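Hi again,

Forgot to attach this to my earlier email, sorry! This is the prediction with zinc ion bound. I've pasted everything inline since the attachment limit keeps bouncing my files.
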Amino acid sequence: MSGIVVIFDFDKTIIDCDSDNFVVDELGATDLFNQLLPTMPWNSLMDRMMKELHSQGKTIEDIVEVLKRIPIHPRVVPAIKSAHALGCELRIVSDANLFFIETILEHLGIRDCFSEINTNPGFVDEEGRLRIFPFHDFTKCSHGCNLCPPNMCKGVVIERIQASLSKEGNKKIIYLGDGSGDYCPSLKLSEGDHVMPRKNFPLWDLIIRNPMLIKAEIHEWTDGEELEQILLHLVNTIGSTNNNNSAQLLSADCKLQTISAAAHETLPQVLSVTQ
Ligand SMILES: [Mg+2]
Ligand SMILES: [Zn+2]
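Structure tokens for the complex follow:
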């Protein structure tokens, strides 16, 4: 094993859009969604939208057909398969829902690459309606984090993963994300970990505002092609450091980008991974 755990956000990280918005838009319910959005939390609204679509006669098969044509960059699936083949353990932490994520991953043929999917529960009820519930039941108890939406604090998930990894020796985390909900877990990463924020998206904006708050090394990416290059470069670099073997690097011209020239000066030296 490589000693690396790669944690992916889903929307706008693995796939190239927001799955909730895509399904609502493709099934023609955008106006109702926008009308109701100011009145309830996003996660509760998605459950409500599935009720509305069900009552309009839209079936689970209709939803599955939409999910099967979700946009994804052509290099993302190969990147995931390569990281898995190199021995990384892959997990997902997402504020979408389990039904959307599993349907898409199965369609792409990569469901088995992931050992864990942390997301909002989603299942089809006996009437054939998709139900979507919060990851944390905020009607009973708050997760207590004011950076995150009420239904899910990804930082709580990362802390649980870190606690379980600490029993397995010196494992490194690579976290990939784009959204503001990925900021809380990025703050929890340790020295020796890596965060890959998507450039010019909310997570990147939050990180570059004060990069010194992030203990992990920061590597920006813009699209699936860079995601693949940077992720596999990191996996090879960390893997070879872990094996006390520095000969395993990918090609030297591999485009490893750091956050920006200005921000970089305030960052700790890259690749100071020690055992
Ligand atoms: Mg996202
Ligand atoms: Zn949080």
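Confidence is low (pLDDT under 50) at residues 245-275. The longest strand covers residues 89-97.

That should be everything now.

G.
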